[in-house]
Design goal:
By secondary structure, this protein is mainly β. 14% of the residues lie in helices and 41% in strands. The strands form four sheets. Strands 6-12-11-8-9 form a five-stranded mixed β-sheet, with no helix packed on it. A four-stranded antiparallel β-sheet has the order 1-2-3-4, with no helix packed on it.
């Protein structure tokens, strides 16, 4: 009895394994793989019509994998990072883009969540110099257009913070001042009460 149970269990497991391998073989047989010039996986097309596409950033990291609706181009921001804080007069936004079945025509950047768009420089590797707006939070998005005038549906983009208002920093000093060491412009021998030192910037 025990032998028969073990025999049936082994037979069932073998049947499951054979069925599983058969399914894998049949699934793989219906898939077509394509590679780019650097021999990186670019597309997997399955017999049912599903196409999985892959894209890579400028250093070779895969930044996209999944079905792309209607073969539309795709674009990505690689710098700054999501959640970054920016300061200064300008910020350089860089990224990459890709298209399937057609050349890229242009990449556009929005710094206000998609309300307005501005042309970036370059296509597969692009950049845009943003003249920073007032302090606050901003949603950056991109969209690519290919040579057949098909335009990407923008994603959620990234969020950054502009912070240019630096709190004024004040230096205070006190102590011996016979040679003007305190720095308040006087030669009073001793400064027992702290005084503000002028001529210093943050």
């Amino acid at each position: 009895m025990t032998f028969r149970l073990k025999h049936h269990a082994v037979t069932a497991l073998m049947c499951i394994a054979v069925l599983y391998l058969s399914c894998i073989a049949a699934y793989a047989a219906t898939a077509t793989y394509t590679y780019d010039d650097l021999n990186r996986l670019e597309t997997i097309e399955y017999g049912g019509g599903t196409i999985i596409r892959y894209a890579y950033d400028e250093v070779g990291n895969r930044i996209l994998s999944g079905p792309i609706a209607d073969d539309l181009p795709a674009s990505f921001i690689t710098d700054p990072d999501d959640g970054a804080t920016l300061s200064g007069a300008n910020a350089l936004i860089t990224g990459s883009a890709t298209a399937w079945g057609s050349d890229l025509q242009m990449v556009e950047v929005s710094t206000d969540g998609g309300a307005n768009w501005r042309l970036a420089t370059g296509t597969e590797r692009w950049s845009y110099t943003w003249t920073l707006s007032a302090d606050g939070s901003y949603n950056l998005k991109t969209r690519a257009t290919d040579a057949s005038n098909s335009t990407e549906v923008p994603g959620t983009g990234i969020n950054v913070t502009v912070a240019n208002n630096i709190l004024e920093k004040v230096v205070w000093a006190w102590g011996s001042n016979g040679n003007g060491q305190v720095g308040d412009g006087t030669l009073d021998p001793r400064k027992l009460t702290p005084v503000q030192v002028g001529g210093l910037s943050a």
